[in-house]
């Protein structure tokens, strides 16, 4: 078996799609000939201090000399090239989405992250993107050669189909409360259909962007929706499964997604869905399996909510279409097979 180290910032149990991807890959890769070990880097990425970079250099230097470094882009894109070269290891990047695509950054931060990530990717023996849309972005805007790029879409675990026939409908949105997920726009859209019957739960970490959390709470209160919208924060797996089972309409208003794993999870469960098309999300959700709206278009989101909340038969038709699309999604074994092939190819290829 080839040796690899999957390096990521902070806690592997962090409740986001990117970390869920990393956890699943760590479990599945040994079955495809890759002896992979996890390596936790300082949690400050993508904005590390000098002390964080020094600790990162030490940790990377202590990995087995014959191991390939498989580095999550949340950290890799903010690492100086000199630090990466000093590791003396062959490097493969895992890119969920480019760092500069995160919402809420200043123009200066965006420019710095884009330049840093482009330089880091240039020295990688291979690059693995989690969606075709992200792959196209990396080739077009980050100089990644197509022959060094592989696409390994997230797998989806088997899941029971949700009933999704409740009245009044219960709306579910999942994702950390950060600017990119556009909860402010979702609250505004829900305020526009306050005359209809519905309740809603937002599930996702409240720890990453306190100012955004405060803004969303303030908007909920200002629209008088505190009794209808619940910010549940991050929840354990059992509670998340119960939330899917109790959902009648799944809504995802994100401005940008590198893939959108919760969209795939909702499809697999046959949930009627409204989804924005930001980034890769428009590809993740096939046409006809959801009502799609442009990212950041609150009037379009409001109109979609009104149409589906008012029409139970339309929701049921969408549920059937979602279930059909979900049945075609790959499993994690498929994802691991693709990654293993890419890692083995990178281990044999000339370094850039």
Automatic annotation (TrEMBL):
This protein's superkingdom?
Bacteria
Pinpoint the Glycosyl transferase family domain residues: 165-323
Q: Which InterPro entries match?
A: Glyco_trans_1, Glyco_trans_4-like_N
Q: Does the keyword Transferase apply?
A: yes
Q: What are the GO MF terms of this UniProt record?
A: glycosyltransferase activity
Note whether Transferase occurs among the keywords.
yes
Record Gene3D superfamilies? Glycogen Phosphorylase B
Single GO biological process annotation from the record: lipopolysaccharide biosynthetic process
The molecule here is called Putative glycosyltransferase
What species is given as this protein's source?
A: Azorhizobium caulinodans (strain ATCC 43989 / DSM 5975 / JCM 20966 / LMG 6465 / NBRC 14845 / NCIMB 13405 / ORS 571)
């Amino acid at each position: 078996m080839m040796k690899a180290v999957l390096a990521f910032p902070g806690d592997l149990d962090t409740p986001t799609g990117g970390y869920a991807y990393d956890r699943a890959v760590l479990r599945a890769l040994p079955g495809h000939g890759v002896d992979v070990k996890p390596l936790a880097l300082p949690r400050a990425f993508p904005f590390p201090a000098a002390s964080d970079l020094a600790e990162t250099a030490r940790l990377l230097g202590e990995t087995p000399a014959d191991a390939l470094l498989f580095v999550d882009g949340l950290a890799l894109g903010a690492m100086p090239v000199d630090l990466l070269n000093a590791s003396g290891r062959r490097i493969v990047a895992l890119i969920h989405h480019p760092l500069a695509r995160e919402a809420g950054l200043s123009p200066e931060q965006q420019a710095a992250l884009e330049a840093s990530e482009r330089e880091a990717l240039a020295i990688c023996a291979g690059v693995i993107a989690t969606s075709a849309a992200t792959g196209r972005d990396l080739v077009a805007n980050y100089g990644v050669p197509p022959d060094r790029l592989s696409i390994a879409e997230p797998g989806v675990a088997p899941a029971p189909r949700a009933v999704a026939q409740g009245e009044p409908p219960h709306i579910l949105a999942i994702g950390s409360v950060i600017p990119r997920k556009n909860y402010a726009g979702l609250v505004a859209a829900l305020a526009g259909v306050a005359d209809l019957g519905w309740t809603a739960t937002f599930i996702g970490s409240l720890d990453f962007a306190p100012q955004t959390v405060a803004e969303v709470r303030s908007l909920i209160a200002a629209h008088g929706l505190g009794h209808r919208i619940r910010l549940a924060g991050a929840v354990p797996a059992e509670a998340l499964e119960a939330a899917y089972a109790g959902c009648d309409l799944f809504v995802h208003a994100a401005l940008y997604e590198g893939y959108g794993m919760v969209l795939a999870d909702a499809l697999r469960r046959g949930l009627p869905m409204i989804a924005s098309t930001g980034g890769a999300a428009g590809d993740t959700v096939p046409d006809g399996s959801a009502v799609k709206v442009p990212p950041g278009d609150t009037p379009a989101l409001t109109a979609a909510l009104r149409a589906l909340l008012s029409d139970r038969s339309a929701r049921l038709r969408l549920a059937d279409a979602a279930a059909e699309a979900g049945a075609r999604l790959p499993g994690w074994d498929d994802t691991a097979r693709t990654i293993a092939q890419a890692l083995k190819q990178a281990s044999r290829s000339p370094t850039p």
